[in-house]
Amino acid sequence: MISGLPLLLSFLAGICTLLGCFALFFVKDFKKGYLSFFLGISAGAMIYLSFMELLPQAIKALGLLSSNITFFLGILFIGLVDLIVPHHFANYCTRNGIKHDKLMLSGFMVAVGITIHNFPEGVAVFMSSLGSIKFGVLIAFATALHNIPEGVAVATPIYFTTRSKLKAFGYSLLAGIAEPLGAIVAYAVFRPYLSSNFLSYIFAFVAGIMVYISFDELLPSCFENSQGHTAIAGIVVGMLVMALSLNFM
After folding, report:
1. Average pLDDT, stretch 27-31?
2. Looking at CB atoms within 10 Å, which of 39, 92, 201, 233 has the fewest?
């Protein structure tokens, strides 16, 4: 039977794409600064957690060489996913001046891209939670924060093309539900191998995934549109939240 709390964390992190969808509907003036701040918090949280907790824990259990190899394998893995299915989602948030058929296609493609990218994120949240509920909660929090603007990115082109809130909601839900699906698949595949050492490898691998996401996706996006100070504020807040959480959890 699948562990309830790790699966719940994966579900909650993924379903935050719907918060982005609702923000599009109910926040009349969704400013670019909001997006930069949220992306900055997520990047700061992921980078801090990766280098201050996940990788050190793996090094302590496995040694420096094995941990670093696994860390870079995590980077390579998510890099290959990004190469095969790119999803530069921030660009779609402001493209309302192009033809509707092209905008609809863009919305569909970014939804598919984010769905595929969310699958390994669900694996990361779930597997980390099996090793440490504390780490699982913190990774889920950081993942949830960057899923909010992803929800905006998915819903925006669909809504402005179709004027259908239901369709925008459906595409956002599809992108978000990939995370708990990733958790279920991960449990089915890796259940026979679960051990303390195996979970330490997972920590190093997840650290690589989160560092890549932060440097390839979150940081470039949150510094766009002359929002540098807002982005830095978000990054610092994200790191501070992780630091406080690790001390008090």
Report:
1. 61
2. 233
Residues in contact with 169: Cβ distance below 8 Å, sequence separation at least 6, in sequence order:
18, 21, 155
Confidence of residue 249 (pLDDT cuts 50, 70, 90): low
pTM: 0.74
In this model, does residue 89 exceed pLDDT 60?
A: no
Whether residue 214 is contained in a domain is answered as yes
How many angstroms separate the CA atoms of 50 and 215, rounded? 12
- Asked if 146 and 209 count as a contact pair (C-beta separation under 8 A), the reply is no
Structure tokens at 79: 């890099």
* Six-digit token string for 11: 């579900």
Q: Which of 160, 83, 142, 147 is nearest to 119 (CA)?
A: 147
Domain enclosing residue 160, as ranges: 4-21+32-248
Q: Is residue 84 in a domain?
A: yes
CA 119 to chain centre: 10
Domain count, the chain: 1
**pLDDT surpassing 50 at residue 94:** no
**How many whole angstroms separate alpha carbon 76 and alpha carbon 79?**
5
Q: What is the mean pLDDT of residues 43-67?
A: 92
Q: What DSSP string describes 164-225?
A: -HHHHHHHHHHHHHHHHHHHHHHHHHHGGG--HHHHHHHHHHHHHHHHHHIIIIIHHHHTGG
- 27 within some domain: no
Q: Give the whole-angstrom CA distance, residue 64 versus residue 70.
A: 10
